[in-house]
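Running co-folding for zinc ion.
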Amino acid sequence: MKEKLEEISKQGLQKIDNIKSIEELQDLRKELMGKKSPLSEVLKTLGTLNPDMKKEVGMKATEIKNTFSLKLDEKEEELIAAKSVVDEPIDLTLPGIKPEEGVLHPITQMCYDLNDAFLSLGFEVYNEDDISSEKYAFDNLNFAPDHPARQSMDTFWIEGTEDKLGNERLCLRPHLTGGSVRYLLEHGAPARFVYPGRVYRNETTDARHERAFFQYEALIVDKDISFSSGVVMIQTIFEKVFGRKINVRMREGFFPFTEPGYEIDMECLVCTGKGCRVCNHNGWIEVMPGGVIHPNVLKSANLDPEVWTGFYINIGLDRLVMMRYGVDDVRLFHSADLRFLEQFK
Ligand SMILES: [Zn+2]
């Protein structure tokens, strides 16, 4: 039995000496000290020995175990120390590894640029949830009960709420305008704020239309807001975004939440007015509807239309970015195609 222990000790110490890596050391620790190690096997037989032998073998086995443990710890320290020693010279003149730099999505960048422009005019930036309700998306905004936009062909209604009404009938917001009344109910008037975000429409996609797209709406409400306040907002945006004056035309437009309403077009910068598929070959592109806030909308916001007036503009961010960079297909923005997106670095 004693010879067997001697042999276990000798072999074990030799193996510890030969270790080259931390991984090997961990394996060997299991092999020498684990439940199935030769040392443990010997200890299991102690019960069969006479008391003297039992004491002697027990002590010897414990001694070997302690030695293994000590030597393994020493070896481990040695290996860790060796690892941190640089054994190859470093060439400090070699070029470094350049980390890949990310870039803001062009729509995000446009949104930030507009925020900067509006913040400098004393506006606040307001964020509303993507899920809205019939009350906020339509009822508050003077949409007639039978207005076609309420139907599922335009709006994504949330399953299970289609049969409900008002606040309980939920949808993905089809426009941002519902956020205007929410803000006014929370903050009252006077107010000037912008509320950017993604909106959702159940429609067929083409070069100018997507099912989800970004809008950027701005609203001023005060005691004597005139049409010219709206025009100043529009000019400010274009000058900020394009760095120069842009040809703009305003046409009469009808939106339930405005009275009067306007369609605001800018010259198509993709074809510089000559006509292309983005501008439907007429040289102008519709970038924002806008108008004077309808008295019924003010009433929804608990404001007296005899006292307060306001002006909306709703900017199609995707289209503005298309104009800024001369991009001719809106679907590229959501394609997640890096070949396209990396051009905006
Ligand atoms: Zn064009």
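Result summary
The mean pLDDT is 86.
Residues 268, 270-271, 275-276, 278-279 surround zinc ion (CB under 6 Å).
Job closed.
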